[in-house]
Amino acid sequence: MTVKKMTWWLAGVTLLATGASAQQMDTPSLGATNYAYDGAMAAPATRPSFGDEFSGTIDMRRWRWDTGQNSTGWPNHELQYYAGPDGTNARIEKGALVIEARAEALRKEADWGGQRYSSAKLATKQTLGYGFYEVRAQLPCGRGMWPAIWLLPMDGSRWPDGGEIDIMEMVGFDPEVIHATVHSAAFNHRLKTQRGAEVRVAGACTGYHRYQLEWTPGTITIGVDGRAYMRVKNDQPGGAAAWPFTRPYSLILNLAVGGDWGGQRGVDDAALPQAMKVDYVRYWQAK
Hints:
Radius of gyration: 17 Å
Order of helices and strands: EEEEEEEEEEEEEEEEEEEE
CATH topology: Jelly Rolls
Strand content: 35-45%
Largest sheet: 11 strands, mixed
Distance between the termini: 25 Å
Shape: globular
Number of helices: 0
Low-confidence stretches: 1-31
């Protein structure tokens, strides 16, 4: 473990007044119900229950490549082809996971759907639940970029019934504005009732920042660099339709290109390649 990986970086954080939108569904809305919150967040001082410090090569015991919708097209009309483990869009360089988006003439693989952009999407093979999550990452700028750090269930439940937790989303045409959102059957962007908040993170594209989630049976709190900016409570009627966050989820790291939200102002090919860099992923299971 390097000194770099043990250094907690701090950054200026300014709360904004509107909410976020989900990446992986059909028609994102930027008008999330505002759940802004201000409070301290701190990772446990103990050894993580699960983590990856990204040294050597990508650990295929921990991660899987999601390529399942390349031929049919990804939700939200995204433009990327997600490469598999044989590609180089996801790789480890200088102690960080690099997920790189490129504009390129792609070889016509069996699952190729006509895309002219490539990228990568990784998900944990292990499902994770209540506890504290911390992902230290540097985000890509450039119009058309749509990086995300998020959670989905892997139990076969349909969206939005199974829920979704977006720890971090940003779109390249609005750099440094970070979105956190939760979705459920009763509260989601299709109904324009998704619950979330935004924060401005200075230097999100030029330096590493810690994107954090504390998930308990009664609350979901999301923050950056030790400061929470969103909190959603299990305080709405509707049972599982309002609060499906009772099952284990897979943690997902991906960089989409274009799409209904990320591509609202087009894609700047001249800005590519762009990469999301992840220094580490750490998860402390709740006791």
